[in-house]
Amino acid sequence: MTIGLVLLTVVAILIFFGLSDKFFKNLGVASWIGFILALALIVGAVIPDIVTGGFVMNIGGFIIPIVGMIVLAAFIGWNWELARMFFALLSVAAVAVATRMLILPNTGGMILAASLIVGFVGGTVAYIIGGTRLSTLASVMGGIVLGDLIVNLIYVYGIGGYVFSMGTRGVFDSIIIACVFGILLLEAVVTARRAVSNKRVANTATHTESGEDVDNDFDDYFDDTVL
Predict the structure, then answer these.
(1) How far apart are CA 175 and CA 4, in angstroms?
(2) From CA 39, how far away is CA 171, in angstroms rounded?
(3) Considering only CA atoms, which of 133, 163, 5, 148 is closest in space to residue 66?
(4) In this predicted model, what pLDDT tens digit does every residue of 27-76 receive, in sequence order?
(5) Domain boundaries, the chain
């Protein structure tokens, strides 16, 4: 959970000091909403786990991500982007299930490894399928939580010997890493495409100006010859 808290604290500081206003403007969400969501995740993560019988729940790794997904989905609206978000969510869930079934969270090292893999691969999948900032964030939050639910069902009722624990075993770290990495990847691709587009425009303008200079020189020469 340490990795997720560090990353989320940095994000919260950037939002608080207005250094991410441009990002939230592109996102279509007010920066104060992003700050509240980040703060809620931090508070939820540091609150002690809720333990009831054979059930354990971490608020920052379960409840807050679900609320965040619903809020972001509401901003997306009822359109094709929402459908892409849904498919991205299922894909991220598949990544989470596959990873956590192959790497059983029995030790701290295994939990960390699973968190990193789900974070980086899940963030990449969310961006590729979701395609937008809102879809990427929403599909990561909902997908990793759904994957955690499926894994718990398999562990508890299939394998046996496990406690039903939602939002624990590195889930919080996976969500934050996936959100940050997915958005960084998206921004990198957008920046690269913008640079290529600007270069093409500049080259086109240069070629056009060169052609005009040649035509003007030819006209001047022709006029001087006739005169």
Answers:
(1) 8
(2) 17
(3) 148
(4) 778 888 888 888 899 899 889 899 988 899 999 999 999 999 999 999 99
(5) 2-197
